[in-house]
Each structure stands twice: as structure tokens, then as C-alpha cells.
Amino acid sequence: MTVNRRILLGGIGASLALAACGNGVGGNGAQTIDARVDTTRDFLFSRYPGTQELSRQAFGVLYMPLVTEAGFGIGGAYGRGALRINDVTVDYYSTTRATIGFQIGAQQYAHALFFMTEGALGDFRRGSGWAAGADVRYATPEQGASLGKETTEIEPVIALVFGQSGLIAGATLAGVKYTRIIP
Fold it and tell me: Which end of the chain lies in a sparser environment, N or C, as judged by fewer CB atoms within 10 Å?
């Protein structure tokens, strides 16, 4: 029974921490998301110049400017962003992540998904929800400046996580889902 109580308290604590991080969910809709995406894109390009070329090669880029994550045993994350094709917003998406395992803390970060093939972008847009899976290559910010042609020719989707603040530690199993939204 003690384990169940810990999991319950961990879930409640994670929810409270997530709510306290100021994600801005329910804000001014599309204008807020677009402004955040512009700022995130500009930061990404100025900080990691290789990502600008990566963006030009991509068929589309999903920018998630602010994802808030918290966990204590059970955790979760949520954020909203925009899919851009030729740097024009075509759809808005939310990302939801659930985790379970040994973890404690809270953090905020941004990430971008670069769709390097027309098929990968089409699969993403046609689906009612899309879960990141084995066909996604995750890159670190240090790689963001040097993601080259060899990488982009063999990877259908490249995910770059950057701009982390806060601290979360642990080892977890996680699932991520992206869902089209109307802000």
C-alpha cells in the first residue's frame, strides 16, 4: 500500500510543479504561439548556425518553444507549438509526454522536429496524433551546429532539444505524443 501512496503523492506533486512553471497554456492562442515560435527559431539559428541550413533542407519544422516537465516517480510534460513549412505556420500542435520511473524535479525546454523527407512530414500531418518513435534521431545542442548532409540524408525526422532550464534527474520510460490543436 505504501508504494501506491508514493505514486499518488508523486503524481500530485508532479502536477502541481507542472502547473507552477508558467507554461502559459490557455493564453492568447495563435498570436502567442507564433510569437514564441519566432523567438525560439531566432534563438536556435543564432545559437546553433547549422540548424538554419537544416531548416532549409527540411520539408517542415515543428517548433515547440516551451515544454514544461515535472516528475516525482510519475511525471509529465506539456507544451504547444507550430508546424512551419517554408517558415509559414500551417498548423498548431501540442505535445504531451508521460513518464514513469525513478525521477524527481522540474524543467522547461524547447525542441524542434525537422522533417527531412516528404513522407515523414505527410505521415505527421495525416495522423490524428503522432508518437515519436524509432524513426526520430535525437540531437544535442552541441550537434545542432554540426548536423551535416550525412545525417539529413538518412534520417526522416531529427529532433533537437535545447534551451533547458531547471533540473530533473532520473531514469524513466517515456512516451511523447503530438496532437493538432486549434489555439
Answer: N
Residues above pLDDT 90, as percent of the chain: 38
Q: Which residue has the cell 535525437?
A: 138
Q: Which domain holds residue 144?
A: 2-181
Separation of alpha carbons 183 and 171, rounded Å = 33
Q: What are phi and psi of 36, to 5 degrees?
A: -65, -40
Residue (of 92, 63, 95, 62) closest to 79 by Cα position: 95
Q: How many domains does the chain have?
A: 1
- pTM, rounded to two decimals: 0.74
- Tens of pLDDT, residue by residue over 142-182, are 544 444 443 444 478 888 888 878 776 666 566 788 899 98
Parallel, antiparallel or unpaired: strands 157-181 and 88-115: antiparallel
Total count of residues recorded for the chain: 183
